[in-house]
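Can't paste images in this forum, so I'm doing it all in text. The chain is below; anyone willing to post the predicted structure tokens underneath?
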Amino acid sequence: MNQTPVEAPPQVEVELLMKAYRLMLTAKVMADTYEENKAICSKYVHSTSRGHEAIQLATAFHLKEKDFLSVYYRDESLLLGIGITPYELMLQLMAKRDDPFSGGRTYYCHPSLRREGFPVIPHQSSATGMQAIPATGMAHALAYLESQRLLNSADGRVVVCSLGDGSVTEGEVAEAFQMAVLKKLPIIYLVQDNDWGISAKGSEMRAMDAYEYAAGFKGMERLQVDGADFVDSYTGMAEAFRIARAERRPVLVHAKCPLLGHHTSGVRREWYRGNNLNEHSLLDPLPRLGTYLLEQGVTADELISIAQEIKQEVQAHFEKALAAPNPDPETFHLHEFAPTPVVEESGTRTPENAEKSTMVDAALHAVDDILKLYPEALFYGQDVGGELGGVFREAALLAKKYGDARVFNTPIQEAYIIGSTAGMSAVGAKPIVEIQFADYIWPGINQLVEELSKSCYLSMGKFPVQSLIRVPIGAYGGGGPYHSGSIESTLLNIRGIKVVYPSNAADMKGLMKAAFLDPNPVVMLEHKGLYWSKVPGTEDAKTVEPGADYILPLGKANVVQTASDIQVQQGNSLSVITYGMGVYWAKMASKQLPGSVEIVDLRTLNPLDFKTVEASVRRHGKVLVLTEEPLMNSFAESLAGRISKSCFQVLDAPVYTLGAENLPAVPLNVELEKMMLPNADKVLAALQELLEY
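Text version of the structure:
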């Protein structure tokens, strides 16, 4: 099961061998050209495929238009093999405007491609292991869409994920492998092993190679090929593709390759390789294939002629790329987000005769509505499937209603839960996922930052990531240090994601629908203390539940309480800018100051409705920014600074801020917790001081 022997290779057609030889020569001449023009080509760091050409071309020749491809930064020959031209690669090398992948925004051999006749290549980071999770998410999406008959499994679509052997030591690769075998996904992990990291040899970095490591993942088919021999690589990959296409299960191919170039142009081989470079040169795939072609009857003159022709072609491509225009600097800001279709509030917010609903039930009903309407939607995370339906019952009975293929439990893998959504989105599935508690999101931050947040911008809008990530957040009476944290400031420092924070059931349902329909990554923070309106003073979080058609656009704040005209005219009013539990602390505190307090519920933290904030501050001239987070260096302080600058001339007092004490965790004991966190009494004291200023 774990090892399939490859029979003696059949004769590979000479036409295919010649194609491989031409492209190997192309890759070599490109690398030589870059080396000969260091002043130009080393302006931006790059790597080449020298030594890896055989296995990369062998892989490329098996890929089809319906497949999905995840490459790593050395896969230049793989890209040549699927039909990308040297000119196009050079446009990226020189960060030119017409770089087809990123318009000059990201490194050489970091492709993102949607083009007829080519496999789909979603955006990814520098691919030192992180790409394994999004790639596995692609295969997961294929399996899901096939299970729902939204794709035809007979088409045999597969995902190829290319990795360097050093990257297999990453923990995220283990998460990807685990899910691939658990769900029996159609993916090929191509591991190219040249026995080097940067300056570290394999013996320094690992106790086993990738082939040996993969034996621990029951159900992973394993193959080994000579990655410097095109025929062996081609026939080995033929078997890998057969298994993935026909049997719909994962395969790992371990290919030993020499490293003939530099690790990258920024790390010169002469600094550390020594005699090792000469040893690797003896394994160069190009002369090996040339010798084999001579044995097949190709003449030396033919090979010499091809070499001369390729040299002229590459030089022409290089000169053309060199003369190509640079990006227009005025376009630097484009494609942070893809446009959302939801720009206006729509549907019925308060249906007649409707009963009030808690926030947790409104969220459950919103997900139910989505799954009912969109067959490409699915929901997964820890404990959300099966009988439990989430530790807060926020997915109660959904698995029974929609089946285990659509609503299911994952292992304890926050990185996979988040990162897989990038691959899901690229294939056409629409994932809703959950991180069980905000304090547990940290293992998934790498994927959120490197894969999800940058995809739209660096792919020039080709690959926005539609991902709805639900995160229960906040303190709730004795939750302790690992179930009470607030994380919004960390999230808001990640550009390219949206952050939503509803404070009541109606907003929860409307924002959930908008977040799902948004083509960008959205993190939805859901305060546990508001879920059931059991915390004293939070009764207003329970509202009449909107209709199934209700949608509330992101980025629209709400004035949930106004000050009286008399108090405003007398200069005895102020504004509280807040969100989440802060809305209810402010409401409770303001009962002691009748008519003096306007409360703005932000509802969405990014995009921020600063227009509503500014209008409120200008009405009153005094403002308190209130948060549950520790205050120092927080979003609240940042917002206060922005208000100070924008509204300086109308302010009658400094911008006040109030948040939790600046401690590393919320303590377990409820009395200690009370001392750390804001509450209505603390808010009242701040409001009274501000009014008297």
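The chain has a mean pLDDT of 94. Residues 558-692 form a domain with the Rossmann fold fold (CATH 3.40.50.920).
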